[in-house]
Design brief:
Blueprint (H helix, E strand, L loop, with lengths): L2 E5 L2 E3 L5 E8 L4 E10 L6 E7 L4 E3 L7 E6 L4 E6 L8 E10 L7 E4 L3 E5 L2
Parallel strand pairs: 2-11
Antiparallel strand pairs: 1-3, 3-8, 4-5, 4-9, 5-6, 7-8, 9-10, 9-11
C-alpha cells in the first residue's frame, strides 16, 4: 500500500518559520508530482504549492515569497518551508502526490492525513 506521512506541524508565533515534510512510502513505480494543500475549519481545501517532475513549481498567491516547496527525489519526500508565518496560515496541511504504483497502470492521486499548523501569539 502507498502511504503519505506528514510531519513537522506545530504551533508557532506570527513571523516565525516552520518546515513540514511528507514522505511517500510503499510500492511506488514513479511519482509525477507532489504538493501541499491546506484546509482551515469550515473552509475548502486549497492548493498551497506543487512541484512536478523537472522541478517546476506553483504557489498560491497568498504564500508567494514566503513558502518554498522542494523535493528529495531519492527519498520520495516533499518539503514545504514556511517563513514569515501569519495567523491566516493556520490550517491542516495535507500532502498530495500523483503517482503510479505499477508501470502498467495510470497514475492516481493520494493524500496524507494532514498535519496541523497553528500560527498564534
Amino acid at each position: 500500500q502507498v502511504q503519505l506521512l506528514e510531519s513537522g506541524g506545530g504551533l508557532v508565533q506570527p513571523g516565525e518559520s516552520l518546515r513540514v515534510s511528507c514522505a511517500a512510502s510503499g510500492s511506488i513505480f514513479s511519482i509525477n508530482a507532489m504538493g501541499w494543500y491546506r484546509q482551515a475549519p469550515g473552509k475548502q481545501r486549497d492548493m498551497v504549492a506543487v512541484i512536478i517532475n523537472g522541478g517546476s513549481t506553483n504557489y498560491a498567491d497568498s504564500v508567494k515569497g514566503r513558502f518554498t516547496i522542494s523535493r528529495d527525489y531519492a527519498k520520495n519526500t516533499v518539503y514545504l518551508q514556511m517563513n514569515s508565518l501569519k495567523p491566516e496560515d493556520t490550517a491542516v496541511y495535507y500532502c498530495n502526490a500523483i503517482l503510479q504504483v505499477f508501470r502498467s497502470r495510470p497514475p492516481m492521486t493520494y493524500w496524507g492525513q494532514g498535519t496541523q499548523v497553528t500560527v498564534s501569539s
